[in-house]
Design a protein that fits this description.
By secondary structure, the protein is of the alpha+beta class. The protein contains one helix and four strands. Helices cover 26% and strands 35% of the residues. The N and C termini lie far apart (29 Å).
């Protein structure tokens, strides 16, 4: 099966502050204290999920 060229994350404000992000169609979830932190956490989560494979482009939407 071919790896995706992009992954879309749905971003919501967390009740306790900060942001939550979840990938649509994948079991990838993460959190960040602010938008800058969230972007870094999403990139790390995607890299961990796909490992050594080619990492797809990330799209964040709120």
């Amino acid at each position: 099966m071919a790896e995706p060229s992009e992954i879309i994350f749905e971003v919501t404000e967390a009740v306790e502050g900060g942001y939550d992000a979840r990938a649509l169609g994948y079991s990838i979830f993460t959190q960040g204290d602010d938008w800058y932190d969230l972007k870094a956490m999403v990139k790390d989560a995607v890299a961990c999920h796909f490992g050594e494979k080619e990492v797809p482009k990330v799209i964040l939407r709120s």
